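ugh ok so i messed up the first submission bc i forgot one of the chains. this is the corrected input, ALL of the components this time, i swear. 738 residues overall. if the numbers dont match what u have on ur side tell me asap before i send this to the collaborators (the ones from the other lab, u know who)
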Amino acid sequence: MKKKLLLLMLCVVMVASSFAGCSKRAPQKDKASATQDGSSEASKNKKDGEVVKLRMMAYNAESSRATYLKYLAEQLEGIEIEFEFVSTDNFDNVLNAQLQAGEGPDIIEVGGQTKLLASAGYLLDLTEQFFVSNYVEPGILPYTVESKVYATPLQSWYEGIFYNRQIFADNGISVPKTWDEFIQIHKTLAEKGIKAQTMGAQSYEPMMKQSIALVNNMFYSTNASKDYDEKYNNGEVSLAHEWLPAVQEWYKIIEEGCLTEDMLGLSYDQALDEFATGNAAMWESGPWAVSTIMEKNPDLDLGMFPIPGPEADKAGWLVGGPGSAFAINAKSEHIEEALKVLEITATAEAQQALVKDNAGSSFVKGVEVDLGDTYVDCEEAFKEGHVYAPWTAVWINGNAITTGYGKSLQEVLAGSKTVEEALTDADRINDDLRATMQ
Amino acid sequence: MKLEDFMSTKRKDRVYFLMIFPAFLGFVVLFIVPTIMSFIYSVTNWSVYSADIRFVGLDNFKKLFSDKKTITAIQHSIQYAILITVAQNTLAIILAVLLNKKSKVANFVKSVTFLPAVLSIMVVGFLFQYLMTTADGGVFNSIIKFFGGNSVNWLGDKNLALYSILITQVWQWTGWSMVIYIANLKSIDSSLYEAAGMDGANKMQQFFRVTLPLLYPATSFNILMSLIGGMKMFDAVFVMTKGGPGYATETIMTTMIREGFSNGRNAYACAFAVVFFIIVLIFSQVVSFFLNKWEGVIEA
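and heres the new structure output, hopefully the right one now
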């Protein structure tokens, strides 16, 4: 009998342990309730001297935020930031899975997915927070849904063409003013046995962004684009119609053999290596790559120019905008502390710290940023406001559409699709996702 | 099982039942329930961005079968699973037969062949991404160029990329299959070979008439594992090509992850999971049918 009892108890313990193994630790308190003054139950119950750990999930690497994170550590008392980098390829997978499970980081670096997440109720409404007024309106607009603000912007991001000034000077080449001149540079350098442009086209991003820069030049710079992106969100217009002439113009770069199929076998890092080591004269990317480039080749004379359009008298365009921003998980147990981080981020000092590791303009009122000599060829584009990325600025389903569009452009480069088909693919993804949200 | 039946079951059986109960419970909670839930969600509109879940019938399945990209991903998975099963097992059997000897050289080669299996698929993926790159310094292309050949776009050619991934996975897992075949070879009675030799069978005839039929247990296990592993292929593709160029290396799993997690279309991904479940079930049944027939022939 004793043996039976022992056996039964053993089984009960094993069953209980299997449950314990599967379950997460029961919360000590009820979920924090977000209030407009930024307080939360968990935060109010924080004991003096206790360090609160805030999870910050981001798709920009920790090295590109080093100065800013150091500044935060100096300013925050009793709050420790646990920075968690997840690459863009995997960011939405990880974030969506965590948020859907009612968990997720306290602070989220958001971009093109902001409007979707806000509409689904995953992000805290920041509208009434006083620090929101520190930012200029264009910086806040991409993170506003139905007049409510759900994130505050970090520095602007932009992507143009990095070029090796030494190679350009040695071959008597100047910064191109038109798309045709840009293509001609490829031919001139190729004749001299120099690889003009390298591209990590194994990723869907570079061709997608480069072609959209042409769309910026030829479509978003005209009155025809007024309210276009809002209409696109509603499915009233299509890329295959309005964007087609610009993307066909971009396609010349493939027709002329400047972008080649072998680039589909190159990763971002491999293309960066080629450019940094002087094996290619140009590479499309943004300020976040500068520290790695200079680490690999400290002597490189680096410059960046905007992607030119068809007309020489108009400044070229960069792809970019308010880029990424910080939002707070509506279910965070440390909302008060997360708000403190956003409050500090909205100061001039924090903005300068952000810009130090990842050059970009600030959206905080009164903060002047010197971008440095590398970006001197982009000055006119900045002055004209020629920086735009529709998928982060306005589109609701931006990330999914641009991923699909970029993958289809890979098929265009491989010769199995036309640009019109690539744009139609993107439109179809938009339609599918709009249907999913209904 | 009714209570009286349970009480009347032999004491030993009750003990076994109670002992396996925790594991069974885990299996039900972590596999059976999610599988049933996937079937249920596949006929709803469930998404990350929509709180309102409603029944939509077979809409997700209709969309799935009308999407060329999805069909291509299914084709890639089936093609990959069949090819890796054939290549991996053919090579593993050849290696196992050749290395089933008691010698230091054979033991060394066995260890070297098995070594890749202890590496993570992600590590192997990153390694081969650099070996196969089209950039200057890509090892594979440097060797080809050294012998006067032209550079090959291993991972960027839409017609080649899937096979390039396949090569890396055959390299990684052949040693693992080989070890299972060697274990099986050790159990074959040497007197059978002596008898075959006395009957005049040469080495090749001994292989096809004695070795291969008696490798049935290892072959059935390896074939099923390779097929199911091939159908589930995700990590190597994710690391090496991310499904590209375009959709040239997309598989069922990469598409499911993209639609379900990245794009938030949970119900659509569940429908895909149901289709995947059915395909694997059919595959397993077909293979089991032929393996059973083979077993019957051996026993006869």
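quick check: Residues 2-22 of chain A form the longest helix (21 residues). that seems consistent at least. The CA atoms of residues 44 and 336 of chain A lie 9 Å apart.
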